[in-house]
Structure formats: C-alpha cells, structure tokens
C-alpha cells in the first residue's frame, strides 16, 4: 500500500495531449499541455478560453501559448475537447 | 488514544487511503460536488478520480427574493478522468464502511 | 477553517464548566482532549459539520464519523465518514 501513484504523475503523462482546465471561477480553458510545476501552474498552447457570463452565455477566445496560475485552477480533465464535449 | 472511535484511522489521511479504488463523494468550493472512483491523492489533497459525475449548484436570483435566495438549479456532467486541485477540496466522504 | 469546538450547550442552559484542570488550555491540548468526542467544525463559509472527531493532523485536516452537515440550522447532508481539508498552506 505504500507504493502509490500520485495525482501529479498522472498529469505528467498528459504532457503533449489536449487537456481541459476548469478554473475556480466561471472560466475554462482547453489546450495542449506543455508543462506544469508543483503548484500546478501550467503552460498550454493552442488554447481556447471559455467564459460563462452571469446570463449563461458562453464566450470563447483563442490564445497562443498561455501560462495559467495554479492558484486559480479547480480541475483538469485529460484528453478532453472541453466544455462542448461533456 | 484509547478511545479512538474506529480502527485503522490514526490520522485524517488514513480515511482517504482506505477509500482508494472506492466511490467517494467530494465537496468543492464554488458549490460543486463530485462522485467518482478515487485513484490517487497526495498531501495537498490533489485527487485523481474516474467515472465522475459533477454537480454544480447554480442559484438563480429571483425578483423580490432576498440576496442569496432564489431558484437552485443543479447542472450535472459526466467526466471519464479528472484531476482535482487540492485547495478546492472542502470535504471527502468515503463509502460507508459499515 | 476555524477550530473545532465542543457541541454547543442546549439553549437556555448555563455556560459550560471550564475544561478539566489536567489540560493546560493550549489549542493543542484542547484538540487532544476532544478526540473521540462529538464536535462542531465550523468552516469560514458558515457551514457546520457535526460529528464524532476521529482524528486530526497539524494542518487541521479532520476526520469525522457520523457526520451531519448543517447550513442555516438545517441538516443538508449526512456522511458516515468525512475528511475535512484543513488550511494546508498551499
């Protein structure tokens, strides 16, 4: 029982793949994971940012390479095309 | 420590360790909750879960109702595999061991 | 998260007696003394968790048994066991 897999090891296996990032606010990102650190700060490329307005509309923005501050990240969904696929 | 109520739980993380591969309930900040199978955790309470149902509670303000009250709408979605950043975790409840 | 506190006395009862003198009254001693007892854990959000305190650690991660979640004085959930995450300085 002592040899356990750690969550960040699984995220490490997602480097190079598409990933869906859900922030603590009403904001989500999809992109290709280039890397991350122990704080779960992450670098994505070919990024789409999704914003949900209080009215329930969804606005999307294309971004190039992007650094996300780990403090604001809630969840990561590996290999996912993002909010449209769920 | 003679009156520790349950066996095998000497520290809080023991409760999580005993829940590996089990279906757990997780309450997150921002009125989100998850149920899914727990695969991994670390000291920050970062989690890996699979076969997850996420429920987001959205309070829709109602004309004339007091602040913070209104219609509560639950939005659900299903996710195959999920990493949860530990600082968003409020509570983890394992399946009943009884 | 705030410290766990012993269950509040029933309404209209006199204030609780002071803790036994075997405890020096430090927060650590208090927490050691309440392991195995019924406690209320109040979160900053105002949500209360009431249950039997199994154990806790230095980050104030807390394991409760027979847990009830109370919001605005109403029970909103029950859990057999619950792990409540402390201020894990991340």
TrEMBL record, chain A:
Name the encoding gene, please. Answer: LSM5
- UniProt GO cellular component terms: Lsm1-7-Pat1 complex; spliceosomal complex; U4/U6 x U5 tri-snRNP complex; U6 snRNP
Instruction: Name the keywords, alphabetized.
Output: Acetylation, mRNA processing, mRNA splicing, Nucleus, Ribonucleoprotein, RNA-binding, Spliceosome
Q: What is its main location?
A: nucleus
Functional description taken from the UniProt entry:
Plays a role in U6 snRNP assembly and function. Binds to the 3' end of U6 snRNA.
Molecular function as annotated in GO = RNA binding
* Residue span(s) of domain Sm: 6-82
Protein name, UniProt field: LSM complex subunit LSM5
Instruction: Tell me which domain of life the UniProt entry assigns to the organism this sequence originates from.
Output: Eukaryota
TrEMBL record, chain B:
Q: Which PROSITE patterns does this UniProt record tie to the protein? A: SM (PS52002)
The protein's GO terms of the molecular function aspect are: RNA binding
Presence of keyword Ribonucleoprotein: yes
Q: Which InterPro entries match?
A: Lsm3, LSM_dom_sf, Sm, Sm-like_LSM3, Sm_dom_euk/arc
One GO cellular component this record assigns the protein to is: U6 snRNP
The Sm domain is annotated at 11-98
Q: Where in the cell is it found?
A: Nucleus
Instruction: Give UniProt keywords alphabetically.
Output: mRNA processing, mRNA splicing, Nucleus, Ribonucleoprotein, RNA-binding, Spliceosome
Q: What does the record note on quaternary structure?
A: LSm subunits form a heteromer with a doughnut shape.
Q: Which PANTHER family match?
A: U6 SNRNA-ASSOCIATED SM-LIKE PROTEIN LSM3
Q: Which family does it belong to?
A: Belongs to the snRNP Sm proteins family.
UniProt name for this protein: LSM complex subunit LSM3
Give the taxonomic lineage as stored in the record: Eukaryota, Fungi, Dikarya, Basidiomycota, Agaricomycotina
Q: Which gene encodes it?
A: LSM3
UniProtKB/TrEMBL annotation, chain C:
User: Which GO cellular component terms are attached?
Assistant: nucleolus; P-body; sno(s)RNA-containing ribonucleoprotein complex; spliceosomal complex; U4/U6 x U5 tri-snRNP complex; U6 snRNP
Q: Name one GO molecular function term.
A: RNA binding
Q: Which InterPro entries does the entry mention?
A: Lsm6/sSmF (IPR016487), LSM_dom_sf (IPR010920), Sm (IPR047575), Sm_dom_euk/arc (IPR001163)
User: Where is it localised?
Assistant: Cytoplasm; Nucleus
Q: Where is the composition biased (Pro residues)?
A: 1-20
Task: Indicate where this protein is primarily found.
Answer: cytoplasm
What this protein is reported to do is described as: Component of LSm protein complexes, which are involved in RNA processing and may function in a chaperone-like manner, facilitating the efficient association of RNA processing factors with their substrates. Component of the cytoplasmic LSM1-LSM7 complex, which is thought to be involved in mRNA degradation by activating the decapping step in the 5'-to-3' mRNA decay pathway. Component of the nuclear LSM2-LSM8 complex, which is involved in splicing of nuclear mRNAs.
- Quaternary structure, from the entry: Component of the heptameric LSM1-LSM7 complex, which consists of LSM1, LSM2, LSM3, LSM4, LSM5, LSM6 and LSM7. Component of the heptameric LSM2-LSM8 complex, which consists of LSM2, LSM3, LSM4, LSM5, LSM6, LSM7 and LSM8. The LSm subunits form a seven-membered ring structure with a doughnut shape.
The protein in question is named U6 snRNA-associated Sm-like protein LSm6
Organism in which the protein naturally occurs: Botryobasidium botryosum (strain FD-172 SS1)
